[in-house]
């Protein structure tokens, strides 16, 4: 059994999830994503690690404006450990999205380091990217990126000293650096093998199956029921979805047109290549004929018979 269709997470992020009463939805999703390994053998929902949101921070796309783009939504929050998490949803393909992820994290780090503060106060940033297009090349639908320093000569991993661990309250060097999560929604095959997959299913289909038990989905099911939208808010949501579909359709159309243009260009290139090959073959044949006639005819007559210029025939004599 499948529940009623739900409000998409991108819409909710722009209008509903900044309210403290709704933090449990994002907390559930981020707990499943970031602490999945620590919690994967726990079945009674008394998670070993659970992410708590302290506050939603301002970011360039956090504010609702008439000029809002429909292909991108992001939200920036701080958790109870003082870490900053950027959650971004992107619908349209962007060739330099990897660099954009890097820029977003770098900008956040510099924004939250006060002038004169030492580097030990640099905030830990986690970048969560929910993408509805194919970024890069790979078979998986969830990727996690961290920073590690490997020995060139001994192939060991550089670790924190005991003093560093105590000072920064971190266990590994990678814990000090930004982390990146890339979720490629289009690569998910709709088969939920675990609780994190249940969230990916919801992100792709805007539906939650009655059998799903992932952290935060119960709250999402209750809060994001589309039937709860009334009057003007319902109309705004329907307009948003329509615009989003237009954006997706436009992006797909562009990809198809580009592919067709490439294929057409390749065909034209092949045809031109064949034509050039034929012309080159004819030219070589004329040269051979002219070379054989050099001993029996004068150059002017050979030029007349073959169509070659006198200069071209003169060069054949050398």
List keywords for this structure.
318 residues, alpha/beta, six-stranded mixed β-sheet, 6 strands, 44% helix, elongated
List the helices and strands and how they pair.
Blueprint: H1 9-15, H2 23-34, H3 36-39, E1 53-57, E2 72-79, E3 84-90, H4 97-111, E4 125-131, E5 142-145, H5 162-168, E6 179-184, H6 195-205, H7 217-223, H8 231-293, H9 299-306, H10 310-316
Parallel strand pairs: 3-4, 4-6
Antiparallel strand pairs: 1-2, 2-3, 5-6
Helix pairs in contact: 2-7
Could you please describe the fold and organization of this structure?
The protein has 318 residues and is α/β, with parallel strands linked by helices. The chain has a domain at 9-228. Helices cover 44% and strands 12% of the residues. It has helices at residues 9-15, 23-34, 36-39, 97-111, 162-168, 195-205, 217-223, 231-293, 299-306, 310-316; strands spanning 53-57, 72-79, 84-90, 125-131, 142-145, 179-184. Strands 1-2-3-4-6-5 form a six-stranded mixed β-sheet, with helices on both faces. α2 (23-34) runs antiparallel to α7 (217-223). The longest helix is centred in the last third of the chain and has 63 residues, at 231-293. The protein starts with 8 loop residues before the first helix and ends with a helix. Residues 61-70 have low confidence and may be disordered.
Order of helices and strands: HHHEEEHEEHEHHHHH
Q: Which structural category do the helix and sheet elements fall into?
A: alpha/beta
Low-confidence runs of at least 5 consecutive residues: 61-70
Q: What is the strand tally?
A: 6
End-to-end separation in angstroms reads: 88 Å
Per DSSP, what share of the residues sits in E-state strands of 2 or more residues? 5-15%
Q: Name the overall outline.
A: elongated
Q: Calculate Rg over CA atoms.
A: 31 Å
Mean pLDDT: 81
Main sheet properties: 6 strands, mixed
Counting H and I runs of at least 4 residues, what is the number of helices?
10
Q: Approximately how much helix is present in the residues?
A: 40-55%
Biggest sheet: strand arrangement = 1-2-3-4-6-5
């Amino acid at each position: 059994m499948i529940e009623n269709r739900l409000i998409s997470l991108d819409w909710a992020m722009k209008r509903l999830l900044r309210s403290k009463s709704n933090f449990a939805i994002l907390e559930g999703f981020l707990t499943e994503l970031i602490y999945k390994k620590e919690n994967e053998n726990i079945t009674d929902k008394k998670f070993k690690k659970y992410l708590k949101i302290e506050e939603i921070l301002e970011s360039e796309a956090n504010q609702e404006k008439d000029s809002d783009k429909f292909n991108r939504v992001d939200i920036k929050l701080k958790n109870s450990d003082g870490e900053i998490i950027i959650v971004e949803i992107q619908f349209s393909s962007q060739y330099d999205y990897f660099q954009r992820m890097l820029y977003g994290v770098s900008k956040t780090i510099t924004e939250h380091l006060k002038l004169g503060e030492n580097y030990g106060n640099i905030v830990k940033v986690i970048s969560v990217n929910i993408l509805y297009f194919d970024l890069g090349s790979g078979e998986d639908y969830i990727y996690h990126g961290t920073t590690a320093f490997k020995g060139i000569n001994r192939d060991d991993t550089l670790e924190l000293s005991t003093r560093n661990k105590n000072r920064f309250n971190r266990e590994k060097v990678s814990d000090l650096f930004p982390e990146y999560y890339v979720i490629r929604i289009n690569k998910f095959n709709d088969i939920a093998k675990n609780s994190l997959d249940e969230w990916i299913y919801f992100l792709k289909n805007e539906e939650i199956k009655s059998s799903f038990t992932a952290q935060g989905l119960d709250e999402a099911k209750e809060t994001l029921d589309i039937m709860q939208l009334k009057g003007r808010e319902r109309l705004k949501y329907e307009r948003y979805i329509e615009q989003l579909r237009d954006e997706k359709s436009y992006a797909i159309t562009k990809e198809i047109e580009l592919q067709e243009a490439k294929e057409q260009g390749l065909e034209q290139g092949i045809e031109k290549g064949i034509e050039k090959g034929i012309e080159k073959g004819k030219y070589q044949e004329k040269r051979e004929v002219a070379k054989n006639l050099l001993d029996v005819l004068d150059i002017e007559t050979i030029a007349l018979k073959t169509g070659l210029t006198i200069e071209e025939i003169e060069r054949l004599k050398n």
